Amino acid sequence: MNETSTASALDPRTTITVRCPGDGRIVGAVPEMDEAAVAALAGQLRSAQPAWEALGPRGRSVHLLRWLDWLLDNERRILTLVQQETGKSWADASLEMAVAIDVINYFTANGEKFMADRTVKAAGAANKVRRLRVQVRPHQLVGLITPWNGPLASPMMDVVGALVAGAAVLCKPSEVTPLAWTEAVRGWNEEIGAPPVLGCANGAGATGAAVVDQADMVMFTGSVRTGRAIAVRCAQRLIPCSLELGGKDALIVLADADIERAAAGAVWGGMTNSGQACVGVERVYVEAPVYDRFVTLVTEKVAALRQGMDQPGSFACDIGAMVTSAQVDIVADHVADAVAKGARVLTGGHRSPGGNFFEPTVLVDVDHTMTCMREETFGPTLAIMRVSNEDEAIALANDSEYGLSSSLWTRDRARADRLSRRIEAGSVSVNNAVVATFQMPIPMGGWKNSGLGTRFGGAHGVLKYCRQQSVVEERFALKSELLWYPVIPAKARIIAKLTRLMGAHDWRRRLGIGRS
Ligand code: NAD
């Protein structure tokens, strides 16, 4: 069934209607799933999982690569759904397909290697007669819950590792942006002949909670508040969870940096996806000697940004709308609070008419008493602060309950290396912003309130969806073993003596001389 449909075709009591944030028109609707429907879907996915696991990583990759082909064949249609439900610029929407391509190619190319059995040497003389092996087995059903800022890219970053691992996956996209992902899952189930191990449960928090109650492991991306609630529920159910949560990422510009590049990078890092990126740059600390020039360059570049929802394929705008009007309210509140406490707006600072737009904004004369420096803004703002030296920059960057990612600009590699070790965040991009997040061979994860666990990280990106299973095999199958019953005193004494002889580190203890 194609779940995506026009609103009028569906029962409004159980339907989520989606409006375009750029202009408010209705762009689609999906049926909402209640707890019973989620349980039924979970049951179907579970029953399909053993055959999926039996295919092995190579067999599973065939289906993922077919899915990639189908996504690319339908790219414009799917990215149009992304754009319509988020109000993104076409450029920002297109990045979501780039993420899908990279993640599917990386994990399918490496899945077999990542999941290979590990043969290990036994420890202890008595175990020499045994072969040891660790094999990995997937969690049967992974629950995947995602936010609204990347309707295609966000679930894609995690679903691929779980499918390559051999798990079945029950996804719950954001109720604000369900269209593109519902269509991607329909493609999996109806267009490419893949086994029915990928399900999509649409709905809001209650549906998400039902997914958590059905899953064997939960991968969650979203706010700290929801992440904490999910962690509590997972603890009650004694199942693992991995949480990718909010951020308040700092960017530090040192006096020896390439200021032109740093300014362009800060603008991109702060404004990409209209600032609705967990790893978006929100706070900037600049050493005094280059502060004025940096601020001038950033202000020029931000003022020149073209904002709007451009036509599919046109690439005519730099940034688009914000996904929800509630998020626009948060941005407006942060700017108002900063201005009330003495900050200056150098460009932007207001809502734009005709949709969920907020002007790209530069704030200066900010400090850490202001909300814009403490709470996640998740919008197109850059708040810039002058610092006297690197110690002050690091102290301020670390003065946050968040620790997702960070960015450091300097021409001195040794200095970058030294300072990266003082930053309290899960990743550091040197002379760039945001990029540390999308490196699949290394882990991406938040410190402090920004998360628990990591995504990607090479083999970990698949193994996090697996359980380790140890297999111990006897080399020789004798009729009986020395330690088996009955206990014969003479034999037991010899074993105890031999154990001591081989395990002690000096002759007195080896021979048991002088022991009590
Ligand atoms: P949110 O926490 O409100 O919602 C996220 C998802 O959780 C949605 O699908 C929602 O329906 C679901 N949900 C809500 N209550 C639930 C419950 N009790 N049990 C289970 N599921 C529930 O977040 P949001 O507003 O959609 O997204 C914005 C947040 O996501 C920001 O804080 C942003 O920083 C964060 N984010 C983090 C990353 C990362 O990788 N670290 C990436 C993107 C976004």
Automatic annotation (TrEMBL):
GO terms for molecular function: succinate-semialdehyde dehydrogenase (NAD+) activity. CDD domains: ALDH_DDALDH. Keywords: Oxidoreductase. It comes from the Bacteria. GO terms for biological process: gamma-aminobutyric acid catabolic process. Residues 14-471 form the Aldehyde dehydrogenase domain. Belongs to the aldehyde dehydrogenase family. This is Aldehyde dehydrogenase.
